[in-house]
Amino acid sequence: MKQNLVALISGVLFGLGLGLSQMIDRERVIGFLDVTGVWDRTLLFVLGGAVGVTVIAFRFVLRLPHPLYAEKFYVPTQKNIDRKLILGAVIFGVGWGIAGYCPGPGLTGLVLGIWNPVLFVIAMIAGSLTYKWFSTRFEGEME
């Protein structure tokens, strides 16, 4: 129960941060990604703040023997860069550039009452299910 409550509070705080920083405004995000056109630099402060907090906080958090409400930390162990990682990063980046959303802001943007985030979330779910379907059919070939 405590773990779910912490997850809920963290999610709400994250969503509020996305809204406050205007990461749920797809026009602002697309303007930030348009480095060859009229570049909107304002999200650079959001990026800098996020990286700064992460660099500082992870030094302390990962020294703990385990998270507060879990038995162990779940950190990535794979260190090699393979075709699946590169292809996934390219698809993510192209989707982010076209839609102006990535998963967190897309879900948070649902509260805006407009269709763009709704369509994005539907496409994200469809893409996830399509990947799951393909990966179970062609498991050996996709690696």
What are its keywords?
143 residues
Mean pLDDT: 90
Give the strand tally: 0
Q: List the domain count as a whole number.
A: 1
Secondary-structure element sequence? HHHHHH
Helix percent band: 55-70%
Outline type: globular
Tell me about this structure:
The chain is mainly alpha-helical and 143 residues long. It has one domain (2-137). Helices cover 64% and strands 0% of the residues. The chain has helices spanning 2-20, 26-33, 43-61, 83-99, 103-108, 115-137. Helix 2 (26-33) packs across helix 4 (83-99). The model has no long low-confidence stretch (mean pLDDT 90).
What is the element layout, followed by pairings?
Blueprint: H1 2-20, H2 26-33, H3 43-61, H4 83-99, H5 103-108, H6 115-137
Explain briefly what this protein structure is.
The chain is mainly α and 143 residues long.
